[in-house]
Amino acid sequence: MLKMLCLLAALLLFCPLAKAEGRVPAIIVQSDGARRSDAAPLDPRIQPAVALSFDDGPSGDYTQPVLDILAENDCRATFFMVGAAMDQSRELVKAVYDSGNEVGLHTWRHNDLNQMDANAIVRNLELCQNIVLEQTGTTAKWLRPPYGRVGPTAYSACNALGMYIATWTIDSRDWETQNAEKIYNEVIGQLRNGAIILFHDTHAATVEALKSILPEIKARGYQVLTVDQLMSFRESLRSATHYYHLDMEKLKPLQ
Ligand SMILES: [Zn+2]
Q1: What is the mean pLDDT of residues 43-62?
Q2: What is the pLDDT of residues 212-234, one digit of tens each?
Q3: Ligand 1 geometric centre to CA of 9 (Å)
Q4: 106 Cα–ligand 1 center, Å
Q5: Which pLDDT does position 255 carry in this prediction?
Q6: Ligand 1 centroid to 201 CA: how many Å?
Q7: Rounded to the nearest whole angstrom, what is the distance from the C-alpha of residue 80 to the centroid of ligand 1?
Q8: How far apart are CA 217 and CA 133, in angstroms?
């Protein structure tokens, strides 16, 4: 208990680091060298929006190709990274952040949060945050629980860390099918306003599928955002729950 209180006091002292507000640079330089403005996202009641998310990276083979396709299509995403993989590819943590995308956490070793006590979860996520802080100067705000398994212990750990938990609305099943056409059909068939879409930046088929999925989502008039950008339209956020979509009944009043 005392240990937990000390940890909380340390976190409060470190408070500015917990405020990893969605930071997006004003100008993005695309992989082809073209520059474009980066306007703030519109309220999803004015223009529909989805959030993209990529779990289990960073991957030396696939994360940069995913970043390139996102930039080419003027899309954003959140990368829920595994700590041990970040440790191996620290430069990719920086590349994700510097390209206007969001770094989220996915535990140090893809751990099942329901098998851990709150102290262990906090220690695990702090190890991840150390790398994010070193590479980006800020900390991650969102956690994606491995296997989608989450409960009261994870909620209290996230509360101590000032983090929020995101699961997903649409599972691309990319890890299962490893087939670009099936991934495309899974995502486009379920597309709807406020959805959080789950991919993994660890498969060649995912990269291939994105080449057709992103232009199609844009052609249907959607904004493609980070999880934090999408969820910022909610009236309020709490650590003691998890979010699988943007609930259109719980948005801030229109400005
Ligand atoms: Zn995972």
Answers
A1: 98
A2: 999 999 999 999 999 999 999 99
A3: 31
A4: 7
A5: 73
A6: 10
A7: 8
A8: 32
Q: Domain 45-247, what architecture?
A: Alpha-Beta Barrel (3.20)
Determine contact, residues 160/152, Cβ cutoff 8 Å: no
Q: How far is the CA of 110 from the centre of ligand 1 (A)?
A: 6
Calculate how far, in angstroms, residue 116's C-alpha sits from the geometric centre of ligand 1: 16
Give residue limits of the domains in the chain: 45-247
DSSP codes, 40-108: PPPPTTTS-EEEEEEES---TTTHHHHHHHHHHTT--EEEEE-HHHHHH-HHHHHHHHHTT-EEEE--S
What local confidence, expressed as pLDDT, does residue 222 receive?
98
pTM for the full predicted model = 0.86
How far, in Å, CA of 143 to CA of 242, rounded?
9
pLDDT at 216: 98
Residue in the block written with tokens 């296997």? 147
CA of 203 to the centre of ligand 1 (A): 13
CA–centroid distance, residue 57 to ligand 1 (Å):
9
Tokens 């491995």 appear where? 146
Mark 125-147 as b/e (b = at least 16 C-beta within 10 Å). Answer: bbbbbebbbebbebbbbbbbbbe
Report d(CA 204, CA 61) in Å as an integer: 8
Does the pLDDT of residue 55 top 90, yes or no?
yes
Distance 221 CA to ligand 1 centre (A): 29
